[in-house]
Each structure stands twice: as structure tokens, then as C-alpha cells.
Amino acid sequence: MTELIYEGYFALFLIITLGIMLGNVKFHGFSLDLSAVVFVALIMGHYGIMVPEAFQTIGLVFFIFTIGIQAGPGFFEAFRKSGRQFLTICLLLVSTAALLSFATTRIFGLDPLLGVGIFNGALTSTSGLAAAIDVSGSTTPSIGYGVVYPAGAIFAILTIHLLPLILRVDMKKQGKAYLENLEADFPKVNAQHFVMENKNIHGKTIREIGVGAMTRAVISRIRHGEQVYAPGEQTRLYLGDVLKIVGTKEALEKVEMMIGPPTNEKIPKASGYKINWILVTNKDVINKSLSELNMTAYYNATVTRIRRSGIDISPRAGSTLRFGDKVLIAADEENMPKVMQLLGNNEKQLSETNFLPISLGIVIGVLLGAVNFPVFGLFEFSLGTTGGVLTAALLLSKMGKTGPIIWNMSGGANNLLRKLGLLMFLATVGTHAGAHIADALTEYGWTLLYTGILITIVPMVITAIIGKYLLKINFATLLGVIAGSMTSTPGLAAADAKTDTDAASLGYATVYPLALVLMIVFSKILSVI
Hints:
Elements: H1 8-23, H2 36-46, H3 53-107, H4 112-122, H5 126-136, H6 140-166, H7 171-185, E1 190-195, H8 206-209, H9 211-215, E2 218-224, E3 227-229, E4 242-247, H10 249-258, E5 262-263, E6 273-279, H11 290-293, H12 295-299, E7 302-308, E8 311-313, E9 326-332, H13 336-343, H14 347-351, H15 355-369, E10 372-375, E11 379-382, H16 384-399, E12 401-402, E13 405-406, H17 411-444, H18 447-470, H19 475-485, H20 489-496, H21 503-528
Antiparallel strand pairs: 1-4, 1-5, 2-3, 2-4, 6-9, 7-8, 7-9, 10-11, 12-13
Helix pairs in contact: 1-2, 2-17, 3-4, 3-16, 3-17, 3-18, 3-19, 3-21, 4-5, 4-6, 4-18, 4-21, 5-21, 6-17, 6-18, 6-20, 15-16, 16-21, 18-19, 19-20, 19-21
């Protein structure tokens, strides 16, 4: 029985189990959540209980790939809107850490190459360490890295957990504010009834009038006399008609100017008339626009709403459908089954996980990460495994579909694979760091550790204050930006646990590629000065 605990697979699940139990313990509202796994792993590693390194790589690529797949659709929009602010935080954090490393190395009389290792360990950057070793031709940086890395990972987690408390930030309010900001980009869609009183459009077809193009609203239902029906492009509007129209507040205001005044009168459902939410699961319609599908012409069906990731989007002719979207369809009883067949509406298919896109996406990411890119002829840069997988996932998620392959994952599958990968990564990193930390501290003293902790914490606190008070960045997003600037996967896990939104993941994914480049650049500079 004693030997069993030293078996890699058993140790992995034992550490995960104990870590989750510890993470569930709350002290004055504070808990370590999944990050507690790394603390248990450090203790286990100190006593010689190790998890094989293969689990670290597998866990890392699972975690990073699912982050990219989830963040992909919103990443490019976030970069367009807030990229300059996020990149400012990233540059400030890494440069501050580099300056601190340079200063403390000189103050304490440490070997400069040891200082480079401390710099990379404090910011948990393997790519920067590799660059320093490549430039110097010495393994000395790895000593500083090995001593400081565990502290860098641990204090990054603790600092992210404590920053909201220190700066008195209500993370629930920040999560709510993030969602409200999303709603500003995708305004709430409402339904309103109007009476047609515009004599200038009396007797004209919906296509001639151009209601959709001019107002961005959708006519869902019309009552003409005693008749109630779903409109098509050739449907004519007459004075006195009552129209049910769906759109944003702004769109409905335009409708009022174009059609006539709103009314409290409701249009009853006609017999044989259906309004259903339909799930998009058919591969053939993914990435196709509503104008391409032309359901109005083929099925006399109207798309009145698209629901994506919990947000209602007002449909337009150019709106493209993504796997897992829900669309609200108005159609007659005869055509509704045809529309369901066209869109898929297969709940089972949504819940099933196809591993081909996952494995293929990871393969593409690993290959991308192995490519060396020359930078101004000064040095070569590669994304590495983490950066390659993240970049591939972001791009593939944005594409949505390639031929028959759907890159998007259901929320449940993504969440499960992400947590599994994170737990494997933390358990492995913790045991290997725990095995050497005591010896390293005995040999090199506590100076390296104190220095590393200082380089970890100070830049995080400085950028958190600047990001919150000067740049006014949403704090849930800011924590992700800070974790990404430090290339800290455990830090992202801590930030992610602070909110139910994907704010932290978006922030992390936005700055991570730049952080990789900056860590390499500063590591090379520190190695030669």
C-alpha cells in the first residue's frame, strides 16, 4: 500500500483530491479554490512523491487550448477595443520586473545570470529562461529560476486572490459590469407592437420598404384585419395593420418613425403558427449568413433573435450562425419542422464532444509553436508549446469551422477539459518544484527567494493600481491581463475563479503573446549587461 502512493497516476489523483478539499475551505470568505492543488503538490514533492512530467505537458495544452477556444470569438473584438490599455499594462509589468531584477542583483551582489533566472522564475516564464540560457551559454539562470519559480507561482496566485481585498473591489459587481458592457456591444433585443399609419408606404412590400436594412429590426408577425401570419419579403403593408417587430431600443425607435406609433394591442398566435427556439447543430449551416440561408424565401420563416453565449443578438442579413447558437424562429406549422431539420436542433449532438478538433487543434498549435520567427535580424523568436497552442486555438475558434470540422466546443465540455488540464498541470509542477526547493534554499540562502517574491508582487500591485484607477479597466479583466503579462497559468486559474464570466480569460489571451516576446527580449538584455 505504501508503494502505491509513489505511483505517478495514483499520486496525481491523490494530490488533486486533497487539493480540491483544501481549496473548498473558506477563511473569512477567502479560499484558494483549485489553486490549492499546487500547495498540496509542493508538500508531496518535498517528500519524494512525484507526478510524471508528461502529465504537466498534457495538462498544459488541454488548459491553454480550451482557454483559446472559449476566448477566440471575443478576443479580436477585445483587442480592437482595449488592446492599447491591455498592452500598456503588460509592458509596464514586465519592464518593472526587469528593472527590479537588475537593481536587486546589483544591490545583493548576485551573479547577473542568476538574476536573469530569478526574473524568469518570478514571472514563471520558461521561454525567457530558454532565451537566457541560449544567449549566455550557461545553465546558471536555471538555478535562480528553479529556486524562485515555486514562489513566483504561489505568490502570483496569492496576490491575485488578495488584490480584490486589498483594493476593496467587489468582484461580483465587476463581473456584472463586464456583462453590462457586453450588452452595450450587443444591446438587449425587445419585441414591440406597432400600428401601420404611414401613408407613404401603404401597399408596398417589405422588400420595397427596406424595413430591415433601414432599422435593423425584424418584423415577426402581422395582423391584417382578422388574418395573422408570418411575413415574407413580398408581404405588403396596409394602413391599420398591426405589426410585431423585434429589435434593439434604437432599432424600434427608427421603426416608430418609419411605420407608426407603438400600441399595447397584442397579436394573438394564429392557428398553425409556431414560434420556437432552435439549436444550431447542423455543420452545413455553420458560418453561413442569414442572407445565404434565405429562410424567408424557402420556408416563409423569420429569424427574430439569435442567442449566443447567453446574449441576445438582433439578426441581420449578414449575421453568421455558429455552432451552439439558439435562434428564435417564427414560421407556420408546416415549415417549422423543415427549419429545424435545416438548422439541426440536436441537443445530443451539442452535448457530445468530438475529440478530433481538439487533438488536431493541439497538433497544429504545437507545430506552430516550434516555428522560429526572426525578429529584425537580432534574434529568433518562437511561440513555444503554450503560445503556439493558444494562438492556434484563438484563430480556429474565430474561424468556427473548416470543412466538416467544427472547432467550437460546448460550454460543458470546455469547462471539464479545462479543469482537468489545469489540475494535471498544477499537480505536476508542484511536485517537481517541491522536490528541489529545500536543497536550493540551503545552498543559495533565502536572498534569492526574497528577491523573487519582491519581483513577483511589486509589479502586480503597481499595475493593478494603475489599471484600476488610471486606465479604468474592469478589475475581473485586469486580473487576467496581469496573469497573462506574467505568463502565469496558475495565476489565470486564480483570476478565473474570481468571476463567472470569461473576462479574465480574454484579458489573459490578449496580452499573453506580447508577454512571451517581452520576456525573451528582456532576458536577452539582462544576460548581456
